[in-house]
Specification:
The complex is a heterodimer of chains A (165) and B (373).
Chain A lengths: L7 H136 L3 H18 L1
Helix pairs in contact in A: 1-2
Chain B lengths: L1 H33 L7 H9 L4 E4 L2 E7 L1 E6 L2 E6 L8 E3 L5 E4 L10 E5 L2 E3 L2 E2 L4 H27 L7 H22 L3 H23 L13 H17 L3 H8 L13 H90 L5 H11 L1
Antiparallel strand pairs in B: 1-2, 3-4, 3-9, 5-6, 6-7, 7-8
Classes of the chains: A mainly alpha (165), B alpha+beta (373).
């Protein structure tokens, strides 16, 4: 049967055609396609890698930012605490200083009051003695003519009073 | 859904209508062509359609054929003439005194161009561009168009863009074979053999599909012709054995079997050498038989119409038309699938045969390691 007997002409042309087709595609067809496909695959791989590293970097940056924020918050809290402490300290110191100052003022006042009092006392004594002398003089004038004897008597009396005090 | 049903129904109706309109005309022509007695010879028609011819038929006409060049090397050297000169039993008389005709029914060279010398038929060396040869050329051009188009795209874009639409479909087909068959089987040697294997795949696929198109650029039963499949199988045979490793030849000439199987009587060697040749033979027959079978089933289904019409008249013939056309359409759709599968199988088997001849004897090293251990 013809169908099962390979025909020489057809085998010949088939072989020639196939070789021509193969050579053309081998030279200008397949290498370009396979190279294009593989370079595209490389490009996609690179793209995915890039995207992954970008995501990684973004995650890192986010972590970093969170860390920095946390740090800042901590520092803020620290400085607030510090400020608070300092405020208390300053107030304390001011109070101390004020108290000291007040005490000093009070002491000074006390001293001056004492002095005043002493002066006043002295003055008062002098005045009292003068008054007393005048009174006594008026009283005793009648009784005593000798002024010297009278004054001596009064002085001695006043000394006694002072000693009693 | 309703819309789809409408289209489907309309399609079916028009299909049936066309079948009724066309088939009686075809039937009458077939009958007229088959002879005066109006009986049809299914075997003759089937093998006529499956075989080669010097001209290319046009649809709905058995007398006009597209003429193709007849190239013969006869008793007086090379002769080239149009096939129109020898159509319908005509004899072509060359000016130098030689005459050629297509041998008749009862000749040994039935259907082939013969030279008539002293009233006897002699077969010259025939390198005619027959229908099948011309179909091979068309297939080559289609392959070049498909693949060089894709290559041009890749050269232009250099991997920065993926092809769309038709070019994308071609690329996915190529990638399917390269990434799915060639690379996993051949590994590092994939790039070396990929051009051959991919060419084989695309060429067979294009020939298969063109064979299913019933009118002019297609319709030649190429891959269902043993010459075509044999040539392809021989190419695989050449590639397998030309690039084979030493290990492959050692396994054939001195295989790793008990000595009595190979020494006084070279039993294993005979089997192995036989195996070298059975591989391309299997390739040849597998593709040939599958594709020819597909074509034959469609032809038989069509012929059933005329056979039943001849037996039971117009009514039975008409009923057969519906059944036959539906089955033919179904079979042709399956043949589209088979076209792909057979191209795939041929490529896959070629890849495996080449890969088997590329082994570097890892087993031996492994065995030694086991013994040492």
């Amino acid at each position: 049967m013809e169908l099962f007997k390979p025909d020489f002409g057809l085998v010949f042309w088939m072989f020639v055609s196939f070789v021509v087709l193969f050579v053309i595609l081998w030279k200008w067809g397949w290498p370009a396609i396979l190279k294009g496909v593989s370079s595209r695959a490389d490009l996609i791989d690179k793209g995915v890698e890039y995207a992954q590293s970008a995501k990684q970097q973004l995650d890192n940056a986010r972590d970093e930012a969170a860390k920095i924020l946390e740090e800042a918050r901590r520092q803020q809290a620290d400085s607030l605490r510090e400020a608070d402490k300092m405020k208390t300290q300053i107030i304390e110191e001011a109070r101390d200083a004020a108290q000291q100052e007040a005490r000093k003022v009070m002491d000074a006042a006390k001293v001056s009051i004492e002095q005043e009092r002493k002066q006043a006392e002295l003055q008062f004594r002098n005045e009292v003695s003068t008054f007393a002398l005048e009174i006594a003089g008026k009283v005793v004038r009648g009784q005593m003519t000798d002024q010297k004897a009278q004054a001596k008597l009064v002085d001695s009396l006043l000394d006694e009073m002072e000693k009693q005090n | 859904m309703k819309h789809a049903m409408n289209i489907f129904q309309r399609l079916m109706l028009s299909l049936i209508a066309i079948s009724f309109a066309v088939c009686p005309a075809m039937a009458s022509e077939e009958a007229a062509n088959a002879g005066e007695d109006k009986s049809i010879d299914p075997k003759e028609i089937i093998f006529d359609h499956l075989g080669d011819a010097y001209g290319w038929e046009v649809p709905f006409n058995h007398h006009v054929r597209i003429p193709l060049p007849v190239i013969v090397w006869g008793s007086k050297g090379l002769h080239v003439f149009s096939s129109a000169n020898v159509e319908h039993g005509a004899t072509y008389n060359h000016p130098d005194g030689t005459s050629y005709r297509i041998a008749g029914e009862d000749s040994d060279y039935k259907g082939k161009v013969v030279e008539i010398i002293n009233g006897e038929e002699h077969r010259p060396t025939d390198l005619s561009i027959t229908k099948n040869v011309f179909a091979v050329f068309i297939s080559v051009f289609v392959c070049l168009w498909l693949i060089l188009g894709l290559a041009a795209f890749h050269k232009k874009e250099n991997g920065h863009k993926a092809p769309r639409k038709f070019t994308g479909a071609v690329e996915s087909l190529v990638s399917f074979i390269y990434d799915g068959v060639i690379k996993p089987t051949l590994g590092v040697k994939a790039a070396k053999f990929a051009p051959y294997l991919l060419t084989v795949f695309v060429f067979i696929f294009v020939m298969n599909i063109l064979g299913l198109i019933v009118v002019f650029p297609g319709g030649a039963n190429l891959t269902g012709n043993i010459a075509v499949t044999m040539t392809l199988a021989i190419c695989t045979f050449i590639f397998t054995n030309l690039f084979a490793t030493k290990h492959y030849w050692k396994e054939i000439l001195w295989p790793d079997v008990p000595i009595w199987l190979k020494c006084p009587l070279p039993i294993m060697q005979v089997i192995e050498i036989f195996g070298i040749f059975t591989k391309p033979a299997a390739l040849t027959v597998r593709l040939f038989a599958n594709m020819m079978g597909g074509h034959m089933i469609v032809l038989v289904l069509t012929l059933l119409i005329f056979i039943f019409a001849a037996i039971g008249g117009a009514a039975v013939g008409g009923a057969t038309v519906i059944v036959s056309v539906l089955f033919s359409v179904f079979m042709l759709l399956i043949d589209v699938l088979v076209s792909f599968i057979q191209a795939y199988v041929f490529t896959m088997l070629s890849t495996i045969f080449i890969a088997l001849a590329q082994e570097e004897g890892h087993h031996e090293k492994g065995a030694h390691a086991d013994i040492e251990a």
